[in-house]
Amino acid sequence: MPRPERSFRTDALILKRRDFGEADRLLTLLTPRYGKLDVIAKGARKPTSSKTGHVELYTRADMLLHRGRELDIVVQVEMLKPYLELREDLQRGAYANYAAELMDRFTTRSEEDSTVLFTLLDETLQRLCVDEDPRLAVRYFEVRLLDEVGFRPELHECVVSREAVQAEDQYFSYADGGVVRPEHAIRSTSFVPIPMVTLKVLRHMQRSPYSHVQSLSISRALHDDIERILLGYITFLLEQKLQSVDFIRRIRS
Amino acid sequence: MSKAIPEPVIRLTEAFARLPGIGPKTAARLTYFLLRAPDEISQSLADALHDLKTETKFCSVCFNITVSDPCEICADAKRDGRVIAVVEEPLDVLAIERTGAYSGKYHVLHGAISPVNNIGPDDLRIRELVERVGQQDVLEVIIATNPGMEGDATAMYIKRELEPKGVKIQRLARGLPVGGDLEYVDSVTLTRALQGRSEF
Description:
heterodimer, A: alpha+beta, CATH 2.40.50.140, de novo design (two linked rop proteins), 2 domains, 5-stranded mixed beta barrel, 39% helix, 23% strand, elongated, B: alpha/beta, Helicase, Ruva Protein, domain 3, Dna Topoisomerase Vi A Subunit, Chain: A, domain 2, 4-stranded parallel sheet, two-stranded antiparallel ribbon
């Protein structure tokens, strides 16, 4: 969406930030109407700046931005949702890192309407704060994100033969983006086995709202298996390792 | 860059432009200033740059930057070695020293955990801190990492690693800055300021 005025107001989730110049911070934002934006918060590292504390990672803020020549400038900012639990629990914080990294990698700075992605990340951060097991929220986020950015995995028919999948253990092809029937696996590439139960949970996540998925009782082993498939597929799509995954593994052990 | 500019000028301009906060215009301005300035200014700058790398090292105890090893603070018998303040950067040591309110020792991590920037616990001096607490007679560790997402994650990770050692672990208080305005304070800081309020 084109930005008409020199100043504009937006809701924003802070995905990334790094120090810039003497006391400034460079922020990567996800906004509903303007997509992903890089902006500069001048003086935000000084303790007495009115922006300090309002431009924290993985918080939601109401911002007034001024169009700059290269970067937009944060004129005013007020934190709306602090997501405090992410700052007080190492594991929850690490999953928020992961969700923000995924969102950053799968999106470009294109200024298009990103309301669905914005709402998805906002809801996920909220779930990561309150859910007893943050893993489910992250898996649901992955499935929904893949849907939205055009990589929805095909889970109902074989991506090689286009035949319906039978109720038996199957294979999942990262390269073809979906399930492959065992007899056709040889005709696919980069495939891994996927048990029927894992496939069923993934289908459920694809079609159901989070409140329904939450009622599922998923064993630890099944969680591990869903993670194996989704992380494998995502790593294949991004063609690089995700930095936040190592840290999650480290603190889980 | 134009061929009309001599090679040494280009080299110095490019070297300045690599420094943080210096753009091409500032780099050129600094170079031409040095060209016109008396010789002793550029000579003392060159000497200082040379000595910066050859005469400094990390203190083997606290990993601060020092000329002698152990550093002056670690070698000072008057300071309390049973208390260690853990900071992210050497400049944070200076900030705490300026207060004059701390008489313990330090441990410099050289960064904070930031998976998004590919900085994990192994890239910092956390293992050395845990070893130090195990070997020396340390009663209290004050975690003075920055109060942001990365600093908080680092603090929580260090707490997890140090808890089995039975040492008292503290975190710097979070609250309102002197000279600040309550109206502009974010809700996280204000919540923590309320939680940490003290008898007046």
